[in-house]
TrEMBL record:
Classification of source organism: Bacteria, Bacillati, Bacillota, Bacilli, Bacillales
InterPro entries listed in its UniProt record: Bact_solute-bd_prot1 (IPR050490), SBP (IPR006059)
Top-level taxon of origin: Bacteria
PANTHER family: ARABINOSE-BINDING PROTEIN-RELATED (PTHR43649), DIACETYLCHITOBIOSE BINDING PROTEIN DASA (PTHR43649:SF12)
Protein name: Extracellular solute-binding protein
Organism of derivation: Alkalihalophilus lindianensis
Pfam families, sorted: SBP_bac_1 (PF01547)
Length: 534
């Protein structure tokens, strides 16, 4: 048995592994099948044991998904799953890795960079470089066409420890990921009340007041503006761009002078908070916006109670109808307009890892490589075709060997995706559209809105890239952020409701310094400088 760890937990894990190796038929990794020069489908079926996470909307057994059934038929490899949802997955994943009950691999692993590097240091997961070079032609083809991803996958020590998820949809400022929290305004109410679409923050305030006073939802059910504070796509931070640098989910922007900034330390951020407090004092904000969860947010939106709300795609909340439209960025009190870009891109570094308990590395690598086949990747990401038991996202054109998106027919795209797709490692490059697959109607529509409404007002030329920091840097960043970010988020919500941002601002900046904000900036800046020099 390979050595698993070198840390303080070595005795615990080593003992568990020895027990498992001594004849326990219920061990959590597969026996050594002694296979080499493998081609699919195998002559005799074998099994691998994986741990995974999936949506509560998906089947409890991943093998009930048509995508995995087809993969088993095509490869001759049966997957024995341990599948968990939500917070339970993280707990069981960590327990498996710390107790020695390790699977062959973990799909949809969800590790942070810091966790990846710690697991690598402990030799609980293995480097993948040689497996990729020797056994994974599909992934190699992706990296040849888009070599920037190899750099993003590679840790500072030169090793690759996880297989990524790659989804390209647009590029640069026009990437679909450039803005998460689109502002959706109730144009039906605007028309009913004879109001123009707001173009300034003052006009927006007046529109929201009109919504409040005329109660178009009826029976006092009108909510002029709703959100989920500090929650990415549902956060009202889109409005902050009218006052300066703006805000995004990780509070990090890069100026056009290549300087890394914390949005929450910008003077314009203070002015934005003051504006939000004005809305709060006028009873224009959803009081539940400071604590509600996604199901509650969706339920009220589906009832048509919102005048303005924020999310990625209105189809998931108010539906794909004409009642709501995208509100353009607003001019602030001094005429300033800015759409703050997120640092999002279609790249997740750690969608799958192989553990050091795995005794079938060639077999596992070649199975994972099937997930990077272009036709397969598209299905992994969105769902499949030919399923007689439920709605399909695609139909397959045999002659063109192309997956064509079907109409959603009112189904929320996120729900259909979570029921039928498998996530995991995959790659969808921009070159696939029109050759391997069509663009999803909702994505094409959103990309058009991004280009027309948002891109002209994006002042920043750069985003903070997917820097793979060193373990030492990540240790300091995680230590600092453990106190810094909760403090920023707490003050943000407090100030919107209590209006004390002006009187507390200087003390707040002092507290940021005490929480090692300057060191955080230095580490982030050093990482940015390294990544842009390469």
């Amino acid at each position: 048995m390979k050595k698993i760890v070198k840390t303080m937990s070595a005795m615990l894990i080593g003992t568990s592994l020895l027990v498992a190796c001594s004849g326990n038929s219920e061990r959590t990794w597969s026996e050594d099948y002694e296979l080499s020069d493998i081609s699919f489908p195998l002559e005799e079926e074998v099994s691998l044991k994986f741990l995974t996470e999936s949506s509560p909307l998906a089947p409890d057994d991943p093998n009930d998904k048509l995508i995995f059934q087809r993969l088993e038929e095509e490869t001759g490899v049966h997957i024995e799953w341990r599948n968990f949802t939500g917070a339970q997955f993280g707990e069981r994943r960590n327990l498996a890795m710390s107790s020695g009950e390790m699977p062959d691999a973990i799909l949809n692993a969800g590790y942070s960079d810091y966790e990846l590097l710690n697991l690598a240091k402990d030799e609980a997961i293995i480097p993948l470089n040689d497996l990729i070079d020797n056994y994974m032609p599909n992934l190699q083809a992706v990296l040849e066409e888009a070599p920037q991803y190899r750099a993003m996958m590679t840790a500072p020590d030169g090793n690759i420890y996880a297989f990524p998820w790659i989804e390209e949809l647009g590029e640069g400022k026009g990437s679909i990921h450039s803005v998460d929290n689109f502002p959706w305004i109730n144009v039906k109410w605007l028309n009913e009340l004879g109001l123009d679409m707001p173009t300034t923050t003052d006009e927006l305030k007046n529109v929201l007041i009109a919504f409040r006073d005329h109660d178009p939802a009826g029976d006092g059910q009108t909510i002029p503006m709703s959100f989920i504070i500090n929650d990415g796509g549902q956060d009202p931070g889109f409005l902050f761009g009218s006052f300066g640098l703006g805000d995004n989910w990780d509070r990090t922007v890069v100026t056009n002078d290549s300087e890394v900034k914390l949005t929450a330390a910008d003077e314009g951020y203070k002015d934005a908070i003051k504006f939000m407090n004005e809305l709060y004092e006028e009873d224009l904000l959803d009081i539940e916006g400071f604590e509600q969860d996604w199901p509650r947010y969706v339920a009220k939106g589906q009832e048509g109670r919102y005048g303005l709300y924020f999310t990625w795609d209105k189809g998931n909340i108010s539906g794909m109808n004409d009642d709501y439209d995208l509100m353009a960025p607003l001019a602030g009190p001094d005429g300033h307009i800015n759409v703050t870009r997120t640092n999002g891109m279609g790249f997740d570094r750690s969608r799958m890892v192989i553990t050091s308990a795995n005794q079938n590395l060639e077999l596992t690598a070649k199975w994972i490589d099937q997930l990077y086949d272009p036709i397969q990747s598209v299905q992994n990401n969105w769902g499949t075709y030919g399923d007689d038991s439920q709605q399909n996202i695609f139909e397959f054109d045999e002659s063109a060997q192309m997956l064509e998106h079907l109409p959603l027919d009112g189904t929320a795209p996120v729900e259909l995706r979570e029921r039928t797709s498998i996530g995991g490692p995959l790659a969808i490059l921009d070159s696939y559209y029109g050759t391997v697959t069509t663009k999803p109607d909702d994505a094409a529509w959103r990309l058009g809105l991004m280009e027309e409404v948002m891109v002209p007002h994006m002042q920043a030329e750069n985003i903070y890239p997917r820097v793979f920091h060193s373990r030492e840097e990540l240790d300091r960043l995680s230590t600092i952020e453990a106190d810094l970010m909760p403090f920023v988020n707490r003050k943000r919500a407090e100030w919107i409701t209590n209006g004390k941002v002006e009187e507390e601002w200087e003390g707040y900046l002092v507290e940021l310094d005490r929480l090692n904000f300057q060191e955080w900036l230095e580490i982030k800046q050093a990482g940015y400088d390294r990544s842009t020099e390469e």
